[in-house]
Amino acid sequence: MIDFLRNILGKEAPRSKNIAKERLQLVLVHDRANISPHLLEDLKEDLIRVITNYMEIDENALEVQLNNDDQSVALVANIPVIKMKRDYQDLRA
Amino acid sequence: MGEVIVITSGKGGVGKTTTTANIGTGLAAQGKKVVLIDTDIGLRNLDVVMGLENRIVYDLVDVTQGNCRLKQALIKDKRFEGLFLLPAAQTKDKNAVSADDMKKLCEELREEFDYIIVDCPAGIEQGFKNAIAGADRAIVVTTPEVSAVRDADRIIGLLEANNLKRPKLVINRLRADMVKRGDMMNIDDMIDILAIELLGVVPEDEQIVISTNKGEPAVLDMNSQAGQAYRNITKRVMNQEVPLLNLDYETGIVKKLKRLLGLKG
Ligand SMILES: Nc1ncnc2c1ncn2[C@@H]1O[C@H](COP(=O)(O)OP(=O)(O)OP(=O)(O)O)[C@@H](O)[C@H]1O
Ligand SMILES: [Mg+2]
To answer: Which structural domain, as residue segments, surrounds residue B165?
Structure first.
């Protein structure tokens, strides 16, 4: 969009180093996710710790994965809830 | 007790061997006892860059296989008393050296030398694993290109996974004119992406080609900009604070750099 406006306004196109930087940043998200098989396991454990403060979940059925496509990387989690915690008190209330 | 420093990159041809020769020679010129190890078995090059190719009798594989004593394989430099090269084997099996061999070798050399500089082959195969096996610290060389920076990132991850924490970055072949017009990533861009500490920046310089032709590392050439960059890098390897070369960027970048290096404005 910004590029589009720039073109309309007759400003120069983005310099190639900016394109290089953007492409690198995206490709490294993929690369870094690929080379650390322990990352998802660690992330899972952390997620469980945080979520069980609020609700009871089925830890064994919990699924976390990184979905890659050409344009983006998404963290997708499927977390079956068994029940909400009754004793949760909203401390901010 | 000496220190073992490995020079890595991931992508080939970005300047590992050039950097090894220049840092090693630079350290020797500062009066240090230095040995350079070429671990690029089958593609040995450090000998020609150092101008020592005619003196080779034994090599790294001869040492690890016990065909000769370590002392016999060390080639004395032409210029400096305290500088030696342990050349790679050119014809032997690439897998003739193991990570354990390298560890032992580095331990032995540590007793005699102030610095052991290990030139790593390209890639992340056995040769890479061998080269880093005995190292205390690592230097990662990259050029300001997408593919080289990407591979550098991969290497940094592998180094850290192998307990070589906080490797330092050498950016090689930077062209100030291209950076200025926005057609080459600048130093900040690369530091930002790789999130590691900068050891130094070497400009693209035809003196590197000329010095390689002659087998005389550019660090000894007082008229070469790359040589000056390598003299500064050498001092930083010795933990001295040296401001970055002014390669004529916008002043903002230079200021930030100095801050990065812990130097004032
Ligand atoms: N700053 C520079 N300016 C100009 N040329 C350079 C510079 N640095 C390196 N070169 C040239 O680039 C080529 C590759 O350098 P070098 O052999 O040091 O890379 P390498 O990373 O060791 O390669 P390999 O992965 O094959 O071992 C050489 O021809 C060298 O002269
Ligand atoms: Mg090389």
So the answer is: 3-260
